[in-house]
Structure formats: structure tokens, C-alpha cells
Write a structure and sequence with these properties.
By secondary structure, the protein is of the alpha+beta class. Helices cover 40% and strands 22% of the residues.
Length: 314
């Protein structure tokens, strides 16, 4: 299944026109309704009527279907930031809809920020674990009907954007391949750092008597292991110049048949879908080809996609 990066068209930078409140947000992140009690303000009997949630999460594959075509889209961190800026530059903070259909009045985005530090970000106050680069918004709801009949009843659970983006379909020039692959893997490194911090926190919880389990799977086919081994061999022949340390660690993990977490499976599918264009040249000394094998190759992409679908249907 294809995965398409959406970007802002530099010639017609419209970006996001409105934010919709919906029951099933495509980014799979619910918002939370903030009340005075959570801020410990004086008038604790009155609600603030503020919704806080993610408007856009970078590098998150979002399933789409157009007639008979199925595919995934995603937004880079740079696009997410530019979109958040254009939203206000174009004065769209008071534009909102219900389920992308009915225009609403009395809703306004009153706060907006990009998650730059997961540990110090405001989202941690509300037990929200958002990826770096996520665009967060807080929306004031003055519309009584929306608040009482949709928010309080749980009919709407999150934000969904409405806007115009371009399909980044052009194949990147060869000279940019190594840099772009490194950027993708740098994002994976940031994720791994977050996982390490999570393990440290988990150890603290275990000492206090709490237990946290993480599902992981190692039922990927032998072809995934063989691809990873092949990638390691080819990389050694070119003096290990291809891939970042993250890619090499991933290859070692797969080559040895070690289990991978559900979140890692999702990131494998994301990486392999985005980097496939570099693999198709088929040159065994090319870093795009080698890096793709390090992550398990096409068989890993197929396995990851199948595993994600099976888990979603459980």
C-alpha cells in the first residue's frame, strides 16, 4: 500500500482552513476537556469549556481510501510547523466544523504550540504522551449546543483538520537520498530516546510495586531476518557508511529474530513505506538500497502492514 507525504504548496500556501471536532479523529488522539478544578482556580464550580488535543502529529501514517485506491498519508515535522503558523497567519482560528460537515460558531482556538520537549511540555500535566513536533491546540467552546450535546456526551472525541496540501510525488534527486534517509532515522532516534526514558520510568514503577507490560512480536518471516543480514553485509562492504546508528541497531534486532513492540512495528511500516523510493534503484552499493534492507526490506513492510491490521481488528 502506498504512503504519500503531503506538503504545503509554496505557490499557493493555503494550509489548514478549519479544525473540525469529530467522533473518530484520523490521527487517533482524543482531546481532553479542561475544567477549572484541573487548574485549581477560585471558581471551581464553573467549567472553562476548553478542549485540548493534537491537531497534527508528524510522521504518523493516516489511512485513506479514494474509490478503489487505498493508501496512507503523513506530514513531516516541518510541514506540521508551517501549517500551524499559516493557520493563524490566515486568520482561521475561529473557523470550525462538526464532523467536517456543519460549520460551527462559538468555537475558537485560544492556544497553540508545538511539542518541543516531551518531559517539560504542558501535555504531560494531563498524561498525554505526544511525539515531538506534534501541533497541540486548545479550543474555547462558547457554543452551548456543542458543549452540552456533543462534548459532554462524548459524541466528539478529537480534532481533525480541514485544508489543502500538495502530494509530494516527485522522486527526490540522488544527491539528497542520504540526507533524507538520515533525517527519517533521526526521527526514529528521538523516538528511541523517548522509549529509554519510558523504561527508566517503568523501572521506578516496578520498584513501587506497579507493573507495566509491553506487547512485542517476533513472528516476522525469515526473509525479514535475511534482508537485515544482507543489509549488514552490504553496509560492511562500503565501510558502514550507510544508515545511522538507529538503522544499524534495527538491523541487528531483526537479524537476530528479536521481538519488536507494536509501536516499533508501526514505525517500521512508516519508514519502509517512505524510504521505498530509494530502494527501487536496486544498486547494491547505494545507501538507499542498503538502508532499506537494514530495516527488513519489502517483506518487513508487508509483515508490518499485516500485523498492524490484525491488531486493529482484535
Amino acid at each position: 500500500m502506498n504512503i504519500v507525504e503531503l506538503i504545503l504548496d509554496e505557490e499557493d500556501a493555503i494550509g489548514i482552513e478549519a479544525i473540525s471536532v469529530v467522533e473518530s479523529p484520523a490521527i487517533e488522539e482524543d482531546f481532553i476537556a479542561l475544567k477549572n478544578q484541573e487548574f485549581k482556580l477560585a471558581e471551581v464550580d464553573k467549567e472553562k469549556r476548553i478542549l485540548m488535543g493534537a491537531a497534527l502529529i508528524p510522521n504518523k501514517p493516516i489511512y485513506r481510501r479514494n474509490e478503489d485506491n487505498e493508501y496512507y498519508i503523513y506530514f513531516s515535522r516541518d510541514t506540521v510547523r508551517k501549517a500551524s503558523e499559516l493557520f493563524f497567519i490566515n486568520g482561521n482560528q475561529n473557523k470550525s466544523t462538526l464532523e467536517h460537515q456543519m460549520p460551527l460558531t462559538g468555537l475558537s482556538v485560544v492556544e497553540s504550540w508545538i511539542v518541543e520537549d516531551k518531559e517539560k511540555d504542558k501535555t504531560k500535566m494531563y498524561d498525554m504522551d505526544m511525539p515531538l513536533g506534534t501541533w497541540m491546540v486548545s479550543m474555547k467552546v462558547l457554543n452551548d449546543d456543542v458543549w452540552n450535546n456533543y462534548v459532554k456526551t462524548g459524541k466528539v472525541k478529537g480534532f481533525s483538520i480541514e485544508g489543502y496540501f500538495a502530494d509530494k510525488a516527485e522522486r527526490p534527486k540522488d544527491k539528497t537520498i542520504k540526507d533524507e534517509l538520515a533525517q527519517i532515522e533521526e526521527e526514529e532516534a528521538e523516538y528511541l530516546l523517548g522509549q529509554i526514558k519510558g523504561i527508566i520510568k517503568k523501572d521506578k514503577r516496578l520498584k513501587s510495586g506497579q507493573r507495566t507490560e509491553m506487547e512485542s512480536y517476533s513472528d516476522y518471516p525469515d526473509s525479514v531476518k535475511n534482508n537485515a543480514k544482507r543489509g549488514l553485509e552490504l553496509n560492511e562492504k562500503v565501510n558502514n557508511k550507510c544508515a545511522t546508528q538507529v538503522g544499524k541497531v534495527r538491523a541487528q534486532q531483526l537479524a537476530q529474530g528479536k521481538p519488536v513492540s507494536v509501536e516499533t512495528i508501526k514505525r517500521m511500516f512508516s519508514y519502509l513505506s517512505r524510504a521505498e523510493v530509494y530502494y527501487e534503484k536496486g544498486e547494491t552499493t547505494d545507501c538507499g538500497y542498503i538502508s532499506y534492507l537494514l530495516w527488513g526490506g519489502k517483506s518487513a513492510k508487508s509483515w508490518a502492514e499485516s500485523k498492524i491490521k490484525s491488531l486493529e481488528n482484535e
